[in-house]
Specification:
Layout lengths: L8 H15 L6 H8 L3 H8 L2 H26 L3 H14 L11 H10 L3 H27 L9 H20 L4 H15 L1
Helix pairs in contact: 1-2, 1-4, 3-4, 4-5, 4-7, 5-9, 6-7, 7-8, 8-9
Length: 193
């Protein structure tokens, strides 16, 4: 009976995620993954069953971290709406950073692999739904404490926020300037007021 090689799972997932993020799922070879993760092919298959299994694990790694970071930012703000504004300010502050050209791993996956792979699409949608529910709950809390007008629909606004995030992520990849990004934020903040 073979034994699984011992390795730091989070480190392997981080390295594999970077490779998939840079090259896309289809263009990332098992040879690239073995070099990047420093695992031999047998260890990758023993731990993750397949290249797709490793890819799904990297989506879980990124998705869980994203949900936690968004939740923490919102919960650490004085009010729910201020937490949402802070998330967008952080996103806008990335305009000049080189990593902004990479977009979001989940958004990239939608554009790269999920159209042709139902399992990948389902996994990405799971994290999009979780993130959207964080926004929906924050908006409902804002409405409960009088910060958000009662005529606003938290479910619809949460979907709009998700769409705005996706659009901003793509806009950042195109090299948009700070003014353009700020104008999008201004419109979103007007809608939230």
């Amino acid at each position: 009976m073979s034994r699984l090689a011992k390795f730091d799972r989070d480190l392997v997932l981080e390295r594999a995620m970077q490779a998939f993020w840079d090259q896309g799922y289809c263009s990332t070879s098992v040879a690239t993954l073995t070099q990047t993760t420093q695992l031999n092919p047998g260890s990758i298959y023993a731990a993750f069953e397949s290249k797709q299994g490793l890819f799904l694990a990297t989506l879980d790694h990124y998705g869980k971290r994203s949900v936690e970071e968004i939740t923490q930012t919102i919960n650490s703000a004085e009010t729910p709406l201020e937490g949402i504004r802070e998330l967008f300010r952080q996103l806008a502050s990335n305009v000049k950073k080189p990593e902004s050209e990479r977009s979001c791993f989940l958004v990239n996956t939608v554009l790269d692999a999920s159209r042709h792979n139902a399992m990948v699409r389902e996994r990405v949608n799971h994290y999009f739904d979780l993130i959207e529910s964080v926004f929906r709950n924050a908006l409902a809390s804002a409405q409960d404490n009088g910060e958000l007008a009662i005529d606003k629909n938290p479910r619809t606004l949460a979907t709009f926020i998700m769409t705005t995030i996706w659009g901003l992520r793509v806009l950042l990849v195109t090299g948009a300037d700070q003014d353009k990004v700020e104008s999008v934020l201004d419109q979103l903040f007007i809608l939230l007021d």
